[in-house]
Amino acid sequence: MSSDLATFEQILPLLGVRVFAYDWLRRTFLTEPTKDLLQTMSQEGFVEGFPFVDDSELIHEGVGKVSKYLKEKDVLSEEVYNQLHWDYTRMFIGPYELSAPPWESAYLNKERLLFQEETLNVRRAYLKYLFLPKDYGHEADDHLGLELDFMYQLCELAISKLNKQDKAGLKELLVDQKSFLEEHLLMWVPDFSKNMAKNAQTQFYEGMAMVLAGFIELDLKALEELLDILG
């Protein structure tokens, strides 16, 4: 077995874990909760199996809150389902003042305006990979759900590069993901997550705020490890 093949086999599990985590996070934050997502998360051991749960106090505590909520509540009942929808809506959509606005520019722009330079910088990162958000032009590109979706798409593409044994292409993808984390998500999501955890009316969203903050912090270390292994 060549050294590259051995390296690819070594890093494949971690790449797969990152796909799983970003898929779950993007589905949680991009839109109001769907019954399909809640049903999946309610499966025995699903939430408890979130990546790095034993390596981060934030993830561990967040997983505990989400798991407790899903076990104690019938999330598919109309009453609880509507409570979750309202919790998402009041924090991220409106109609009242948002307690946890889900856009990067709301934290990094001095006037806290959308569609500013921060949004354009995110768009430039997307365009390198021809990533065009579904609601392009209507939803600001720096919405949390879109940034997480972008990371998910690059995780999927990284596995594709690995399967093609394209080491150079894989390294470029991982470097770009690391840059996106450092220059975007890690610059504002910690503050967003604190706002969200403080203002959430359900343990589900309080816990997911912690899981999100803990994961992106550890994902930076994961990317550094992957790049170190690739050399």
Detailed description of the structure:
The chain has 9 helices and no strands. By secondary structure, the protein is mainly alpha-helical. Helix 3 crosses helix 9. The longest helix is centred in the last third of the chain and has 33 residues, at 167-199. It is globular and about 55 Å long. The two termini are 18 Å apart.
Identify the quaternary structure here. Answer: single chain
Distance N terminus to C terminus?
A: 18 Å
Tertiary shape: globular
> How much β-strand is present in the residues?
under 5%
Residue stretches low in confidence (pLDDT < 50, at least 5 long) are none
Helix content: over 70%
Number of helices: 9
Strands, total number:
0
* String of helices and strands: HHHHHHHHH
Radius of gyration: 18 Å
Structural class: mainly alpha
Rounded average pLDDT? 92
The main β sheet shows up as: none
Task: Give the key terms.
231 residues, mainly alpha
Describe the structure concisely.
The chain is mostly helical. It has 9 helices and no strands.
Break the fold down into its secondary structure elements and pairings.
Blueprint: H1 3-29, H2 35-41, H3 57-72, H4 78-92, H5 105-108, H6 117-128, H7 144-163, H8 167-199, H9 203-230
Helix pairs in contact: 1-7, 1-9, 3-9, 7-8, 8-9
